[in-house]
Amino acid sequence: MVKSNSIQSITDNNIPSFSSFAPKYLYEIDGLKRPKTVELEELHLKHLKQFLGSLKLNKISKQHVVRFRTAKIKGGWTGRTANLSITILNNLLNHAKDNGLIDTLPTTGLKPIRWKPKKRPLFAPEQI
């Protein structure tokens, strides 16, 4: 991919790997989002680094994202947690797109996993 920009020409060599871009993303959102949100995104990005770490941002495909999600579901994550992780990945990739590093998002058109929350029993008055 070669993208021409008046400031700088971005080539495949200039595009960072997922592992090298994630800390930059976290640094740049710090202060823009609540501290707990940044903490949660950092936790999910650690899991994503295990799957996408060495891949350049423009080489991440929908297939990579689906494999990650499938592995986490098989590993015991709920659909909600897996969906949240993909949302965080999408946030990072949107940030990369805003910075001119990628043209398209591999998460486009990816449908969230359907899930049902576990039913919790109501408390009896004597339990309160």
TrEMBL record:
| Positions of the Core-binding (CB) domain | 16-97
Name the SUPFAM superfamilies for this protein: DNA breaking-rejoining enzymes (SSF56349)
Molecular function (GO) terms listed?
A: DNA binding
Keywords carried by this UniProt record:
DNA-binding
Q: Which Gene3D superfamilies match?
A: 1.10.150.130
Protein name per its UniProtKB record: Core-binding (CB) domain-containing protein
Q: What species is given as this protein's source?
A: marine metagenome
Its lineage opens with: unclassified sequences, metagenomes, ecological metagenomes
